[in-house]
Amino acid sequence: MSETLVTSPALTTICVILTLGAVHYSKQFLLPVVLAILLFFVFVPLQRRLLRFGINGHAAAFVLVFGLLVGIASIFFLLSGPVMEVANNLPDIITDITIRLERARDALLSAAEGIRGASSGNEAPDFRLAFSQDEDDSEMLEDDMLLNTASGALIYLSEAPAIVAQFFFAVILLFFLLSSSDRIYLKVIQSFDAFQDKRTAFAALREVEQKLGGYLGTVTLINAGLGVSVGLTMWALGMPVPLLFAVLAFVLNFIPFLGAVMGVVLVSAVALLWFDTVGQVMLVTSAFIFLTALEGQVVTPALLARRLRMNTALVVISIAFWAWMWSFMGMVIAVPMLVALRVVAEQIPKWRKFANLLSA
């Protein structure tokens, strides 16, 4: 008995470590599966509406999946022109960035030496002549930046086939899930013997579908509205490639707290490199912060039901955990998976205390 008590925690720890390792290294397979399941709960209410108009399950699934593909393809088509323009002008852009960085370095060093000279009572030396002699160093810096940018782009291009394969796998799986949704529910219900258990399972499935689908659908619409608002605002303020900022705002807003911070940093960095005055940079940054704050403090609380709001501390932990496991896409789907876990736990009597812990 004592030996069993000693080895059980060790075996449990080993099983947890092996499970985490399996989840991490099977990202290529699990990530599209999880994404397809989450999209299933977003689209299944729309599929049921199409079924009421006499459209069969396969046709309804095809319409929804085809609409998703058309929407994504349209975004890529609209982005292709600006992205190709940036790629063609990449050497000039890197040269401009290098010049701006050198000016900022010269200004900071001159200011620091001026403060140091004033505090010591001596006249601050003029470092502009010294830096004007570093043309070879600036050319080397420009070449290094161009090389690093090109090598980074090649790394992402080398991973593109795997990403495209995962995306199409998720889309195909989504089609089969939608086309056989009623059959899947029927098989789950038939796995129970007692009639009361069958009714409970059916009610639980519909509750999960309603709550999780409602949450994901509402959040997706809110993020789409934020993306459109950000894109129009960036266009009005003269930022380059405003559609790209719209897409980034849409995707990053799936990541609570950290997504807004990442968006502010990206917008501010591009504005610093694009505009010549501090006022324009502050205007762009303030506009982005205002839109994200309006969405987070007014729009989302008004549209998202209170019963679906999550524990803030656990949301942060979930984002950090899935970022560690599955990098950026893990951060995007961390909160939807946490909401799914909570909705499922609410339907299991033994897990309801855990579901209460997850709630806000």
Characterize the overall form. Answer: globular
User: CA-to-CA gap between the ends?
Assistant: 42 Å
What structural class do the secondary elements suggest? mainly alpha
Low-pLDDT regions: 1-6, 124-135
**Helix amount:** over 70%
Beta-strand residue fraction: under 5%
Order of helices and strands: HHHHHHHHHHHHH
Strands, total number: 0
Number of helices, where a helix is a run of at least 4 consecutive DSSP H or I residues: 13
Radius of gyration: 26 Å
**What is the averaged pLDDT score?**
78
Domain count: the total is 2
Q: Please give the largest β-sheet.
A: none
Q: Which SSEs are present, and which pair or pack?
A:
Elements: H1 2-25, H2 27-52, H3 57-88, H4 90-120, H5 128-132, H6 135-179, H7 181-190, H8 195-236, H9 242-252, H10 258-274, H11 278-303, H12 312-346, H13 352-358
Helix pairs in contact: 2-3, 2-6, 2-8, 2-12, 3-6, 4-6, 7-8, 8-9, 8-11, 8-12, 9-10, 10-11, 12-13
How would you describe this protein?
This protein has helices at residues 2-25, 27-52, 57-88, 90-120, 128-132, 135-179, 181-190, 195-236, 242-252, 258-274, 278-303, 312-346, 352-358. The longest helix has 45 residues, at 135-179. It folds into 2 domains: 28-191, no CATH class; 194-360. Helix 10 packs antiparallel against helix 11. The protein is globular, with a radius of gyration of 26 Å. Helix content is 86%, strand content 0%. It has 360 residues and is mainly α. It has 13 helices and no strands. The model is unreliable at 1-6 and 124-135 (pLDDT under 50).
